[in-house]
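Standup notes
- DV: blocked on the single-chain target, sequence here:
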Amino acid sequence: MEIYRLKDKVPEEEEKIKMTLPRHASSRPRSRGSSLFPLPSSRTVSDSAISDFLITDLKQGIKNPNRVNVFVNEKFAFSLDVAQVVDYKLKIGLVVSNEQLAEYKKASEFGKLYQRALEWALMRPRSEREIYDYLYKKVYEKKLDKNYINLIIERLKEKKYVDDRIFVKYYVENRFVKKGISRKRLEMELAKKGVAREIIDEMINGRNDEEEIDKLIARKRDKYDDDKLISYLRRQGFSYQLAQSRVREYGKD
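- DV (later): unblocked, structure below
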């Protein structure tokens, strides 16, 4: 089984499972949270099985109700997305091997990291490079498997949560709609964000530097004399000819 098994939204049938199952699976004292799945009445667990890896409880997460806390041999072991629990067919009373336990823990790591990346990506459009840098930092800090990075990015792209074209559109329309920015500077900034050249050219094709330079002149004309204003505009990526002609046309009141 692959650690890739998780879903962004809980399907209707899984939501029904969460709603219909008892909130307390046994009379034994438990840690905080509510049990999701009852101990199968048809199965008895011997003392020898308990000494192995036995799933003794499944509890709904407190902060995130779509995650399930899994207890093995009466101790918290890991948490999984509710969809992962369904996929792995986990239930109270299930005896698992050491290899299975290791796989579930890797699935837990992957699920948590994916959820954090998804939440970060949904705050505003992000470039693929931004997502990579974010995940690399998390993987390095928590000493996780680096293979998670590409798996998560591919899933986010598959679900359209990460798309460099959408990012460029957002970046251009929201970051500089009032300030004004030259095409040259915009290309440099997007390239630093990891956006491919062909996507940059496609998304900003037809951009008018004259309209953008006028925005800057309107904001800075009272702060600089003509020569300093032209120099400032050139530092912003506009050509000397365009800066000179537009500054002369505007003049000073």
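- Follow-up: The chain has twelve helices and five strands.
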